[in-house]
Amino acid sequence: MRRTLFEQDHEDFRLLVRDYLAREVLPVYEDWRRAALVPRELFTSMGRLGILGAAVPEEYGGGGRDDYRFNVVLQEECARAGVTLGGLRTHLDVVVPYFTGLADAEQRARWFPGLASGELYTAIAMSEPGTGSDLAGVTTRAVRDGDHYMLDGAKTFITGGHHADLVIVVARTATDPDDRRAGLSLLVVEKGTPGFTVGRRLEKIGLAVQDTVELFLDGVRVPAANLLGEEGAAFTHLGRNLARERLAIAVGAVAQTRAAIDLTLTYVRDRTVFGRPVAHFQNTKFELAAMSAESAAAQTLLDAAVTALVAGELDPADAARTKLFCTETQGRVVDRCLQLHGGYGYLVESPIARLYADAQVTRIYGGTSEVLKTIIAKSLGL
Questions:
Q1: Rounded distance between C-alpha atoms, residue 327 and residue 297, angstroms
Q2: Sign, CA torsion 124/128/131/135
Q3: Would you state the pLDDT for residue 240?
Q4: Considering the entire predicted model, what is its pTM?
Q5: What residues have CB less than 8 Å from 166, skipping those under 6 apart?
Q6: Residues designated as active site
């Protein structure tokens, strides 16, 4: 179906990204996979091209175009190239919006030029070893001490934490026994601050080059000037940005679904079984026809949600519906694509195997499918 989401500026940006990935990423991507880490220089090189700073105001060196469709293009082109850069998605789609939406004038002057240039790379530390999706259960504490906060606690599953220069830490600055959501604040911790330690990189079944780490905070003195937004209002701030975070996951899910179908179409045309191409069997045709329809439905729903986000009209329930449908579709489609690859699909070196491994987490992070169903049910009055 013809898409009407993009304008010429987005298509020009698409060509820029496609060329960059072909020249700078694809020739070395396997090295990154073996190292299970992208080089820090990736972000400064993307910053020089203007890929990272589109949403940063022009006076700080950015593009001054806070248009989420540029982020969509970036994810689509990564999937098309067979490149998974989850840390980049988290930086642009999850963390930077907290800075652009909450930073005061002094913080903007201090941090925005680096965000635009790629000199500053970011992460957000929400999850803790004992809380998971229960953000109201955060136990990391920040106690005011003059013009600083004393920060203590531990975080886990932190995407981008290995390289991050700035980490937004969700911490409890006050306790309200009647409202667990009250008293949470966002504090920006800068790399190299005494007491702030990056722990081990966690080994995952997928997302090989996306570093996921533990963070430890032991008596970390954070300037009060690094408070992002209002003290005690973090739950509200997080709630506002969750719709965009969930949409970003859906964007990647649909792009990778399309990539899986394209890979499978090529494979079944080239692979011969019982004297004829796999594509000639009726089951293959029916499976790919059904997957094409599912993918088109997911794309249409996603494009409608992106349009609503750009217009400032995407509500949390619709974001939940979009992520739920798109990621569940991804899981079903990629599984069937791997089946059509037969034994070759089970090899780690196979692109479809990598897509399969990567797909397993999209129904977990950013809100599990079960949490999303709860949100949708509440919107129905249930």
A1: 12
A2: negative
A3: 85
A4: 0.93
A5: 111, 120, 121, 122, 123, 188, 189, 190, 191
A6: 245
